Amino acid sequence: FMFSSGLNFQDLMARQGAIDSPPKTPFIMGSECAGDIEQVGEGVENFKVGDRVVALPDHKAWAELVAVPATSVFALPPGMSYLDAAAITMNYTVAYILLFELAHLTPGKSLLLHSAGGGVGQAVVQLAKTVKDVTIFGVCSKSKHEALKNAGTIDYLLERGADYSNEVRKISPEGVDIVLDCLCGEECNKGYALLKPMGKYILYGSSNVVTGETKSFFSAARSWWQVDKVSPIKLFDENKTLSGLNLRHLMYQHGSHAFVRRAVNQVYTLWSEGKIKPTVDSTWALEDVPEAMQKMHDRKNIGKIVLDPSLEPKPKPATPAKGKAKDKKAANQEEKKASSVESEEGEKKKEPELTNGTSEDKSDSDSKEKESS
């Protein structure tokens, strides 16, 4: 039974059909949830009814009841809330694998991180700071700089879209040891050029598929063709490493459940020791998921966005917010129409559909709120 759930870029990609082999619509979205076990399948011995767990299903997480393979379920450590579980498990597991399994982060290393203000970005920053003398260059939108500066965990903040390579070179003329790229190759040439000998360039996401210029899986693939190809001989000559991580594929295509479970356990140990604490940007009712998704799409979140089924949905305005004067005028028109033509209201129930397979109930409640306003 689900009490809390996480929102990830993967969910935005699934909504747009921008992932490989998207589920056939209609389907329930979500890839991360926390709650109590209501029922255990035949042959499952390591879990029992009532256990507090977090699950990483391949979609279907945004529901009160979620069926998921036992291999994708993880017992919560004592004292961990469902909100913390939803905020920690996926993001920090990805960050842990990136830093300690792929990049082999050691004291004194330097790291360039894209989307430093997002959920995975903040997890990377916290985990990297558990290692001595690590220098972090964080690239993110200018609007996030002040909040991240106040947090004081990123050594050098760089502006997304600016010529940050020169800024890095001014501070560290020889470059950096590690580049973590979640922009689907958009900055690949810049980042690779910044690597020191023995440096590691790691691709771990494709957030640019749902933001910026790249709007689909196919246009993202096209953008890759504009990136200079890195041949194995070049890597050999320059003593550099190029690697990648896709947690969903690791679990559901490659079957590396034991590897992922070890990483989750390491993350939970660090949490239990007080070395990491999730940064939660905001929590939302399930009914408000379109607005939560829009916030992530616009890159306005700092840390994790969490969905909480126990929350009441936010009151909806009578009309889309396109200016106060227009809102008032539209609201007055709605009231007149509501009192005179009921049939038109019936048609309007179909109009506000935004989404993701859950809009039917939402549009009904929206139209009722319009009538009551």
Question: Would you give an account of this structure?
Answer:
By secondary structure, the protein is α/β, with parallel strands linked by helices. The chain has 2 domains: about 80-315, Rossmann fold (3-Layer(aba) Sandwich), CATH 3.40.50; about 325-370, no CATH class. Helix content is about 40%, strand content about 15%. The strands form 2 sheets. It has a 6-stranded mixed β-sheet with strand order 4-3-2-1-12-11. β5, α3 (about 120-130) and β6 (about 135-140) form a beta-alpha-beta unit. The longest helix has 21 residues, at about 80-100. The protein starts with a strand and ends with a helix. Mean pLDDT is about 80; it is low at about 205-220 and about 335-373. InterPro entries: ADH-like_N, ER, GroES-like_sf, NAD(P)-bd_dom_sf, Quin_OxRdtase/zeta-crystal_CS, SV-ATPase_mito-regulator. GO terms for molecular function: oxidoreductase activity; zinc ion binding. It comes from Atta cephalotes (Leafcutter ant).
Keywords for this entry:
373 residues; alpha/beta; Rossmann fold; six-stranded parallel β-sheet; 12 strands; 16% strand; globular; oxidoreductase; ER; GroES-like_sf; ADH-like_N; oxidoreductase activity
How are the elements arranged and paired?
Blueprint: E1 2-7, H1 9-16, E2 33-36, E3 52-55, E4 73-75, H2 82-102, E5 110-114, H3 119-128, E6 135-140, H4 145-151, E7 156-159, H5 164-171, E8 176-181, H6 188-194, E9 195-203, H7 217-225, H8 232-238, E10 241-244, H9 247-252, H10 257-272, E11 280-284, H11 289-297, E12 304-307, H12 324-340, H13 342-348, H14 359-372
Parallel strand pairs: 5-6, 5-8, 6-7, 8-9, 9-10, 11-12
Antiparallel strand pairs: 1-2, 1-12, 2-3, 3-4
